[in-house]
Structures are given as structure tokens and as C-alpha cells.
Design goal:
The longest helix has 15 residues. This protein is α/β, with parallel strands linked by helices and 308 residues long. Strands 1-7-8-6-5-2-3-4 form an eight-stranded mixed sheet, sandwiched between helices. The chain is 31% helix and 17% strand. Bound molecules: S-adenosylmethionine (SAM). One of its GO terms (molecular function) is protein-L-histidine N-pros-methyltransferase activity. This is DREV methyltransferase.
């Protein structure tokens, strides 16, 4: 597997799942190592065959050039279906959440995926959750999500919904959000009320870029995430200590995954180093973990259970 991934992208795949530099002891203790698998390779192979089709790539480039005079990049991807992304396979997701697929029942389970884009990443969670809710600020992406059968909630009002979720996810949204602090507050409020775990992922080192800003036209958030240092490992540490902890989240575990994007004429695929954090809301007053279901024990508190 390793050699296949290296052949496709040329980057040593050892670093797709492991940080290049040493981790702080806090980050090391919470680290969960993911591994490459066939679904990851399949995405890369498909991307490779699309990118080497020069006729298709020429049509695509002309189409994007025309559309970019009117639409944002995200809207263009929503209209055309270009720019497909891959973060994890179903089995990588199941092993990160310690889901036992034999005993798992998806009926009556709700997942909410915030900033879901075209739903590519969301789709890998669908078999575990019968009801998929999503938010998006791009109207074209919202259309894509509806066409996939997902229930799209208002992107600015989702935290006021009455629905209780079994899991809330925000993949690669925090550094794209106009107010990362408000997003973390809403995540805390709804996950605490739902008594569920949260997954937040983002590309590290952090680089903010706001494409959809209801507060104005700028590409900067109202407040930057409080991370210091230059490396992926530095930012993992500061995300745990300076960002999630003050937002009343305990990091249960985290993993490194390659965030892959379909290629173009220049590259067969694009790779970004993602950090995926599994979070548990803490009680605001004393910092203790919020009560879980009666069946959850110390040893399995990092997994999503049938009962949740
Ligand atoms: C980097 S993309 C991530 C898409 C997908 N979650 C993934 O991991 O591939 C960020 C997405 O968040 C959407 N977005 C930005 N701000 C948002 C907000 N406040 N609420 C909902 N979606 C938002 C953008 O339109 C974009 O599709």
C-alpha cells in the first residue's frame, strides 16, 4: 500500500499519517495512528485518470474561466462537480470512532455535518447514520446536498434546532468560518444538549480564509485561532491547549489524515495535512466531562455507541 501511495503522489506516504516533527507530550498521548487503505488508493487512481484526460481538462479549464467571472470557487465546484475531496474511508472512520460494525445499528441515528461542501466527506459517514443533516453557505453546494438526500439546515441558525444528534462534525470549516469562536460556542451548546461527541478537522498549520462572510466581504475571520509556532506539530498542541480547552472541549483523541483533492492538468491529486480531533464537551462550571449514556464507561468513552 505504501509504495502505491508514493507512486501516485510522490510524497513519502509515511508522513501522510504521521507528523514530520516531534509532538508535545500532550499531543503524543492523545494521538491515534490511522493507516492507508484501498479506498484511499481508489480515490487517487480515479483522480489520476481524470487528470490525465487532456480533452476533459481543457473543457474544464474553459468552463471554470467563464464561471469565475460570476461565481465563487466553492460555487463553481458545486455547479460543475469538480474538486472532489477525500478525507477518510468508512473503515478509517469506524476505527477512529471505535464503531463495531457487527453490532452497530444506523436506524434512528442522526449526524450533522457542518460546512459539508458537496457532501463527499459526509457520504463516508452515511452508512452509520440513517439521518444526515448538513449546513452550507454556498447555495450551489446546498443544491448538491439536497440532491444526495441530506436535510440541509440553515447555516446561521442550525444551533437553534430541536433535533438531537448522535455526532456533530465540522470537517475543514473552522479555518474557513467567519467566526471560529462562535462556531465553537455553537458546537459546545448543541453537542452538550445532544450529549454527543464532536469531530473537528482542519489543515495545519492553520491558515484562515473566509470565502462566505455574512458580516461583510473580508476574507479574515473576526478573531484568529490562538495557535503559535510554525509546524503541524506546534499547531496540534496549541489547538488542544489554546483552542479546544478554553472552548470547554476535552480532546478524546486525534489523528492525522491526508486531505486529498482531485487533480488537474498539473497534478494527479492534491494533498493537504489534516488533523482530525474527536471532542467531548465539558461542563462549563467545573470542567468535568458532561454525563454520557448509562452504558458508557471509562474504557470506551472515546467511541460512539449504539445507545447514543
Ligand atoms: C474547505 S470546505 C470543506 C468542505 C467539506 N467539509 C470537506 O471537508 O471537504 C469549507 C466549506 O464550508 C462552507 N462554509 C464556509 N463558511 C460556512 C458557514 N459559516 N456555515 C456553513 N458552511 C460554511 C464553504 O462553503 C465550504 O463548502
Amino acid at each position: 500500500m505504501t509504495s502505491q501511495l508514493e507512486r501516485t503522489y510522490g510524497l513519502r506516504s509515511k508522513y501522510w499519517y504521521l507528523p514530520e516533527t516531534s509532538l508535545s507530550s500532550t499531543a503524543q498521548e492523545l494521538f491515534f495512528k490511522s493507516s492507508p487503505d484501498n479506498e484511499t488508493q481508489q480515490f487517487l487512481d480515479e483522480s489520476n485518470s481524470i487528470s490525465s484526460n487532456y480533452f476533459w481538462q481543457t473543457v474544464r479549464n474553459i468552463g471554470v474561466m467563464i464561471l469565475s467571472t460570476i461565481y465563487s470557487k466553492t460555487d463553481i465546484n458545486g455547479i460543475t462537480g469538480f474538486g472532489n475531496m477525500f478525507l477518510f474511508s468508512e473503515s478509517q472512520f469506524a476505527s477512529f470512532l471505535e464503531i463495531d460494525r457487527q453490532s452497530w445499528t444506523s436506524a434512528d441515528k442522526n449526524v450533522l455535518d457542518l460546512g459539508a461542501g458537496n457532501g463527499d466527506i459526509t457520504a463516508h459517514m452515511h452508512s452509520f447514520f440513517n439521518n444526515v443533516y448538513a449546513t452550507e453557505l454556498s447555495p450551489k453546494m446546498r443544491n448538491r446536498l439536497v440532491s444526495k438526500g441530506y436535510t440541509v439546515l440553515d447555516a446561521l441558525e442550525w444551533a437553534n434546532t430541536d433535533v438531537k444528534f448522535n455526532l456533530i462534525t465540522a470537517f475543514n470549516l473552522l479555518d474557513r468560518h467567519y467566526s471560529p469562536g462562535a462556531l465553537l460556542q455553537d458546537l459546545w451548546k448543541v453537542s452538550h444538549r445532544s450529549n454527543c461527541l464532536v469531530i473537528v478537522s482542519l489543515v495545519l498549520p492553520v491558515s484562515h480564509y473566509v470565502e462566505f462572510n455574512p458580516n461583510g466581504t473580508g476574507t479574515r475571520p473576526d478573531k484568529f485561532l490562538n495557535v503559535q509556532g510554525r509546524t503541524y506539530a506546534d499547531h496540534v498542541h496549541h489547538m488542544i491547549v489554546n483552542v479546544f480547552k478554553p472552548a470547554n472541549f476535552e480532546v478524546v483523541k486525534w489523528t492525522r489524515l491526508p486531505y486529498l483533492c482531485e487533480g488537474d492538468m498539473n497534478n494527479s491529486a492534491y494533498y493537504l495535512p489534516d488533523a482530525v480531533f474527536l471532542l467531548k464537551s465539558l461542563n462549563k462550571d467545573d470542567g468535568s466531562a458532561s454525563p454520557r449514556t448509562a452504558t458508557e464507561t471509562e474504557s470506551n468513552s472515546g467511541s460512539v455507541h449504539n445507545e447514543l
